[in-house]
Predict the structure.
Amino acid sequence: MRLQVLYLVSLAFLLQGCSWVDKVVSPPTLQDQASKVAVDLTSGSSGLELLSFVGGISTLVGIAVLVITRGAMGMRAIIIGIGLVILNFVIANYLSWILVPVLVATGLISLAWGYVTVKQLLNKECNNVSSNK
């Protein structure tokens, strides 16, 4: 009986091959990480549906106002509603192309702001030291 179990376990490992051994995983690249973030943001749990919903409601309200006022008002609401629906489409399809430049730009702005702040603090400190002498 024990020999049969040993044969069965050996056969299982033989059939499994090398796939039971952990594989070496290379670190993800920047493009892989940006794609993952884009997929996470455009998944069903994100707020992109809200843009389409608000855009649709705005368009319907604009149409209703156009009908009620006989064309005097309501075009702004229609344009805003269509713009929100188009914005939702652009974000959903091109987020990975938009996300990386925005991240780089905000990083550069933060570095520049930090540089200016440190420079002002150092100049202020130098002026305080020279005035005390």
About this structure: The helical segments are 2-16, 30-41, 48-68, 75-132. The radius of gyration is 30 Å.
